[in-house]
Write a structure and sequence with these properties.
Layout: H1 4-8, H2 13-23, H3 33-41, H4 62-74, E1 80-81, H5 94-101, H6 104-107, H7 119-136, E2 140-141, H8 148-162, E3 169-173, H9 178-191, E4 194-198, E5 212-217, H10 228-236, E6 240-245, E7 263-267, E8 283-287, E9 300-304, E10 310-314, H11 321-324, H12 337-375, E11 379-380, E12 388-392, H13 397-406, E13 409-410, E14 412-415, E15 418-422, H14 429-438, H15 476-488, H16 510-513, H17 519-522, H18 534-551, E16 555-557, H19 563-580, E17 588-592, H20 597-605, E18 609-613, H21 623-633, E19 637-643, H22 655-664, E20 668-672, E21 692-694, E22 715-717, H23 758-791, E23 810-813, H24 815-821, H25 825-834, E24 841-842, E25 849-852, H26 860-881, H27 899-903, H28 913-917, H29 937-942
Parallel strand pairs: 1-13, 3-4, 3-5, 5-6, 6-7, 17-18, 17-19, 19-20
Antiparallel strand pairs: 2-8, 7-8, 9-10, 11-12, 12-15, 14-15, 16-22, 21-22, 23-25, 24-25
Protein name: Glycine dehydrogenase (decarboxylating)
Cofactor: pyridoxal 5'-phosphate
Family: Belongs to the GcvP family.
């Protein structure tokens, strides 16, 4: 049977030998050829000992891995979740599960930085933004947040930026979700924000001095009340009002916008996205007019292409963190696109009438349950509620919760006297009967009456989801075709290579993906009892131990649900360590100028001051400048953040000297794990002097990018920092792999972050084994060096190591091309679309360059296809320079070419239609046609439209 690693790694042994010959690597007859390359590329001083014993088990076959996952799944118990607290059972329409969640056309796509070939998912995100904006009653929504609790934290920071008040006080609703309170405390502490809790629904007054107020609507207890007076009071004090609202409830109750809110946040989980033991789920944020340029994360807007036709793209891209760095509005550099697409499709599938019907059904079930419990003698605490009732049963709460659990139902024990119970879309009459029976109701008292407890004074008056897209796809046939039409407009890994540097677009194998939709993983509530989630906890323990082993750390927390949150968690651990040692003066974070932009933004959010360290002409950290900055700031040094291999795609030889210098100054070393896929199996961060790192499971460990999310960004640390890693007050247990207890505050809403996708990385590591992970690293480095060698005569390779080798990516310098021919990096990127490729990373980390990362998953034929395309594009640019085509009328400056642009009207260009459409004859058999021509980003920013345009806008 063929081993999984032979399915995962695209290049065969024969192909690798041919590639090494092309590079000029000599290898012995008695060794693996790739080992000769790695000897040249990876500095000898950092290589792991050849006899190091790994704790990873030997590689399993695909069938064996699935069988083991089935054993773990069977250790979970899926009981009926009626806990609520922001997580609910939901019915994922099968047409959405099969055609989005399980469809590689959606889950293998990359972030839509090349909008011309991302029109499908951008339309889905415009639908998402329109859905959120309509339901919240606010003007502009972004393209998703990481989860509800972190969205509230981002709302707090937005209020601080947008408020005219000089205050440091933020008021928190006493009826907020407990996980949100805990996360707010984590984020506020590092930034000097004072949180003041008030029983807002109970009438407690606001402090005189504040910059914002946060309201949970409905409350965690289920209570519905009118917060408009509190919002008005916050405005009078100069603050902004942030409201966390349940989108399903908003189909029945007044929208936050109509109540005066400035910002609305929340989650879209109950719009068809499984609970997944806590994630991934798409959070949301919407703002009133005037605050749209303060929005964190991504915003999809409508612009126009070269023919003046409407076209979608990411708006206000200067907010992206790799550009704004420490001045960024947030450290978030990703989103939850795949889950946002699912939620938007749920709204498209059901439409406003369907959503309202679901909401009415949920509210009626809650009311019906409440009436039965009242008959049994229980006290319903609040008269007005949507889906959650709080029940007072003095001294009986624990017993009732235990009895319900025995009956297969999960309730929420608030305290010894109180239980809360949430109905959802999946709640049945039988569930209500079972709960009522546990409370002592007699069987003869059940007669279902569909009445809600939503107060008439707060009934929703304004319309929502009026755009035709939410009315046009009612049959499954129409829905299936709509999703297919969007997928066809996009370019994903199921079409071809996505050679993006710094963003590892490797194979997401079907076997790795298989378990995420199994009910035993997908239908778990994140706060389910420990006894119900033994299989998931074991999987988490195993994955934590495996990741600790391959990185050289002692402990790993899987809680961060994005790389940016992992960065923040690691820096907060360093902050906690220094504070515990009495070193509160250590606040300076040294960051090389070549670093990922999120590094600087994360440091600021961790309460640190950024000091930039220079890089030399080879792209390495300038050791002299580092020592000078250390001397300048002396006892203030908290940390150094570096990426290894570097963001320039080079293995730095001085890394041990760099980390030693920081440690000698009393600082900690944070190694950004973005490029771990170039190190795995050959060296470990902990052995390089790293104290803490985040890892991108969506890069190195095969979790799909999903069009810009989900991501998982675990954080690993040495033992002295482990106590400060993120914990969670509602976690099923406190001990982690290796016995470590994490006492830091949470950075995500759920105890284990996006636990629903962890089976993907578990399966990847299990099927690769230690040797397979090492082979994948070597194959990736070989592919990058092959591309660099093949293209070096056509485009200078900007950085390389001492032996002239790159790591897993190479930077092609297109600035000389522009000087010689006038052709820009944008022209080359758009022309690659005509050749059937997604472009490499443009102008990062160096303006005017392309950063290419082929990954280990691509075979030699695909690598050659890319190389030949780049060589031909260089030849086309040279023809422009030679005067064969005018500088303003050639196939590069007009790229990409749509079918309509080639077929409609007269052809008046200096080049032929054939040259435009089929620059190589191989494209004739399977051409990908971009749906729009080059998009005018500046026009879109000047004319900001971030909701569904009317259908008339698309009329030709």
């Amino acid at each position: 049977m063929t081993a999984f690693l032979d399915r995962h790694i695209g290049t065969t042994a024969d192909a690798q030998r041919a590639m090494l010959d092309a590079i000029g690597i000599a290898y012995g007859a008695d060794e693996r050829p790739v080992d000769a390359l790695m000897r040249e590329a990876v500095p000898a001083s950092i290589r792991s000992a050849a006899d190091r014993v790994s704790v990873l088990p030997a590689a399993a076959s695909e069938a064996e891995a699935l069988a083991e996952l089935r054993v773990l799944a069977n250790r979970n118990t899926v009981n009926r979740p009626m806990i609520g607290l922001g997580y609910y059972g939901t019915l994922t329409p099968s047409v959405i599960q099969r055609n989005v969640l399980e469809n590689p056309s959606w889950y293998t796509a990359y972030t839509p930085y090349q909008p011309e070939i991302s029109q499908g998912r951008l339309e889905a995100l415009i639908n998402f933004q329109t859905m959120v904006s309509d339901l919240t009653g606010l003007d502009t929504a972004n393209a998703s947040m990481l989860d509800e609790s972190s969205a509230v934290a981002e709302g707090m920071l937005l209020a601080r930026r947008g408020s005219k008040a000089a205050s440091h006080t933020f008021v928190v609703d006493a009826d907020a979700l407990p996980q949100t309170k805990a996360l707010l405390a984590t984020r506020a502490s590092a930034l000097g924000i004072e949180l003041v809790e008030r029983d807002l629904a109970g009438g407690e007054t606001l402090p005189e001095d504040l910059f914002g107020v946060f309201v949970q609507y409905p409350g965690a207890s289920g209570r519905i009340w009118d917060p408009s007076a509190v919002i008005d009071a916050a405005h009078l004090a100069g603050g902004l009002a942030v409201v966390a609202a349940d989108l399903l409830a908003l189909t029945l109750i007044a929208s936050p916008g109509s109540l005066g809110a400035d910002v609305a946040v929340g989650t879209t989980q109950r719009f068809g996205v499984p609970m997944g033991f806590g994630g991934p789920h798409a959070g949301y944020m919407a703002v009133r007019s005037g605050l749209e340029r303060q929005l964190p994360g991504r915003l999809v807007g409508v612009s126009q292409d070269a023919d003046g036709h409407p076209a979608y793209r990411l708006a206000l891209q200067t907010r992206e963190q790799h550009i704004r760095r420490e001045k960024a509005t947030s450290n978030i550099c990703t989103a939850q696109v795949l889950l946002a697409v699912m939620a938007s499709m749920y709204a498209v599938y059901h439409g406003p009438e369907g959503l309202k019907e679901i909401a009415s059904g949920v509210a009626s079930k809650a009311r019906f349950l409440a009436t039965q419990l009242e008959k049994a003698g229980a006290e319903i605490v609040h008269a007005d509620y949507f889906d959650t009732i709080t029940v007072r049963i003095p001294g009986r709460a624990d017993a009732v919760v235990a009895d319900a659990h025995a009956a297969g139902i999960l309730l929420n024990p608030v305290d010894a006297d109180t239980v809360s119970i949430a109905a959802d879309e999946t709640t049945t009459y039988e569930d209500i009967l079972a709960v009522a029976t546990v409370f002592g109701a007699g069987e003869g008292s059940f007669a279902y009456i569909p009445v809600t407890s939503v107060p008439a004074a707060l009934a929703r008056q304004d319309e929502y989801l009026t755009h035709p897209v939410f009315h046009a796809h009612r049959s499954e046939t129409a829905m299936m075709r709509y999703m297919k039409s969007l997928a066809d407009r996009d370019y994903a890994l199921d079409r071809g290579m996505i050679p993006l540097g710094s963003c590892t677009m490797k194979l997401n194998a079907a076997t790795e993906m298989a378990a995420i939709t199994w009910p035993e993983f997908a239908q778990l509530h994140p706060f389910a009892p420990e006894a119900d989630v033994q299989g998931s906890l074991e999987l988490i323990d195993q994955l934590e131990a495996w990741l600790a082993d391959v990185t050289g750390y002692d402990a790993v927390s899987l809680q961060p649900n994005a790389g940016s949150q992992g960065e923040l968690a690691g820096l907060l651990a360093i902050r906690g360590y220094h504070l515990a040692n009495g070193d509160d003066h250590r606040t300076v974070c040294l960051i090389p100028s070549s670093a990922h932009g999120t590094n600087a933004a994360s440091a600021v959010l961790a309460g640190m001051k950024v000091v930039v360290v220079a890089t030399d002409e080879l792209g390495n950290v300038d050791l002299d400048d580092l020592r000078a900055k250390i001397a300048q700031h002396a006892d203030e040094i908290a940390a150094l953040m570096i990426t290894y291999p570097s963001t320039h795609g080079v293995y730095e030889h001085d890394v041990l000297d760099i980390t030693a210098a920081v440690h000698a100054a009393g600082g900690q070393v944070y190694i950004d794990g973005a490029n771990l896929n170039a190190l795995l199996g050959y060296s470990r961060f902990g052995d390089l002097g790293g104290d803490v790192s985040h890892l991108n499971l969506h890069k190195t460990f095969a979790i799909p990018h999903g069009g810009g999310g989900p991501g998982v960004g675990p954080v690993g640390a040495k033992a002295h920092l482990a106590p400060y890693l993120p914990g969670h007050p509602q976690a099923q247990r406190t001990a982690h792999a290796g016995g470590h207890v994490f006492e830091g505050g949470p950075v995500s809403a759920a105890p284990y972050g996006s636990a629903g996708v962890l089976p993907i990385s578990w399966a990847y590591v299990r099927m690769m084994g230690a040797d397979g992970l090492r082979d994948a690293t070597a194959a990736a480095v070989l592919a990058a060096n092959y591309v660099a060698a093949r293209l070096g005569d056509h485009y200078p390779v900007l950085y390389s190591g001492e032996q002239g080798r790159v790591a897993h990516e190479c930077i092609l310098d297109l600035r000389p091309l522009k000087e010689a021919t006038g052709i820009t990096v944008d022209d080359v990127a758009k022309r690659l679309i005509d050749y059937g490729f997604h472009a490499p990373t443009m102008s990062f980390p160096v303006a005017g360059t392309l950063m290419v990362e082929p990954t280990e998953s691509e075979d030699l034929g695909e690598l050659e296809r890319f190389v030949e395309a780049m060589i031909q594009i260089r030849a086309e640019a040279d023809e422009v320079a030679a005067g064969v085509w005018p500088a303003d009328d050639n196939p590069l400056v007009h790229a990409p070419h749509t079918a309509a642009s080639l077929l409609m009207g007269e052809w008046n260009h200096a080049y032929t239609r054939e040259k435009a459409a089929y620059p190589t004859h191989a494209l004739i058999a399977g051409k990908y046609w971009p749906p729009v021509r080059r998009i005018d980003n500046a026009y879109g920013d000047r004319n900001l439209v971030c909701a569904c345009p009317p259908v008339e806008a698309f009329a030709l």
